[in-house]
């Protein structure tokens, strides 16, 4: 008699059933781990983007419908002119969806910045939206522990850009300190300053990256890496980061904002 079957019945024993159940449970756990590693799917991301945007703009649903219908009407009119409105209407459906998604992603970016604009490290979050061609320091390069004013730094083809967070008049001391610190190491490299905030003399968070891209380019890609390596050799600011400031947590979800 086989140890895996009961006498005279040929059926699996309790041990064999337990082994198969354990194997199935292990497979389910592996699938769950893989799914968690991949992150939320496209539909889940779009739901998250829509939810964030709706908190900021309660009329977003009507706007998305209006944009999609507007695109469909354009394709329908084109189809009527060409005497083939059915085909052009079908062609217009994916374009209508793409137009709505594009508008949603742009609105979601503004909503994301609105949620973090009062949090410490928000200026660093604005720099996180920069794409290729920029090297951004993850932590502030200058900190005032008392006022919690911050200065972040990015290196790109325009040179070195210092982005401050705090009242412009007060944070200028930190900006000047950082200029003096890195200036001797990069004497021929432009140093630009952008004051992030909602005051008249400041740049809104959502416009910081756009403002940086408008700066005149003076370095090549190879020179950008060299400049960053040179200033990275300097000792980091010895002042401790104030408690509660975590630029990484303040960052918006770029994938969610793009809908990917």
UniProtKB/TrEMBL annotation:
Domain of life: Bacteria
Pfam families, per database record: DUF4191 (PF13829)
Segments traversing the membrane: 60-79, 85-105
Basic and acidic residues compositional bias, start-end: 22-32, 246-260
Residue segments, region Disordered: 1-39, 238-260
Comp. bias regions, Polar residues: 1-16
Protein name (Swiss-Prot/TrEMBL): DUF4191 domain-containing protein
Keywords, comma-separated and alphabetical: Membrane, Transmembrane, Transmembrane helix
InterPro entries: DUF4191
């Amino acid at each position: 008699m086989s140890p895996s079957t009961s006498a005279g019945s040929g059926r699996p024993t309790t041990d064999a059933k337990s082994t198969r159940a354990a194997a199935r449970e292990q497979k389910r756990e592996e699938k769950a781990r893989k799914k968690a590693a991949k992150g939320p799917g496209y539909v889940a991301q779009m739901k998250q983007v829509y939810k964030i945007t709706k908190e900021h703009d309660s009329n977003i649903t009507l706007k998305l419908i209006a944009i999609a219908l507007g695109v469909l009407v354009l394709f329908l009119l084109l189809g009527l002119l060409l005497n083939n409105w059915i085909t052009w209407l079908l062609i217009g459906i994916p374009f209508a969806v793409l137009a709505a998604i594009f508008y949603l992603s742009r609105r979601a970016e503004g909503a994301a910045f609105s949620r973090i604009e009062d949090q410490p490290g928000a200026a660093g979050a604005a720099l996180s939206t920069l794409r290729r061609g920029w090297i951004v320091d993850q932590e502030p390069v200058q900190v005032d522990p008392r006022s919690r004013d911050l200065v972040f730094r990015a290196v790109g083809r325009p040179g070195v850009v210092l982005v401050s967070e705090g009242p412009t008049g007060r944070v200028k001391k930190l900006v000047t300190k950082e200029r003096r610190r890195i200036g001797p190491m990069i004497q021929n490299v432009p140093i630009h300053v952008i004051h992030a905030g909602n005051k008249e003399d400041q740049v809104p968070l959502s416009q910081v990256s756009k403002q940086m891209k408008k700066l005149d380019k003076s370095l090549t890609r190879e020179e950008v890496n060299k400049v960053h390596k040179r200033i990275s050799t300097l000792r980091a600011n010895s002042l401790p980061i104030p408690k509660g400031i975590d630029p990484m947590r303040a960052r918006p979800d770029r994938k969610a904002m793009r809908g990917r």
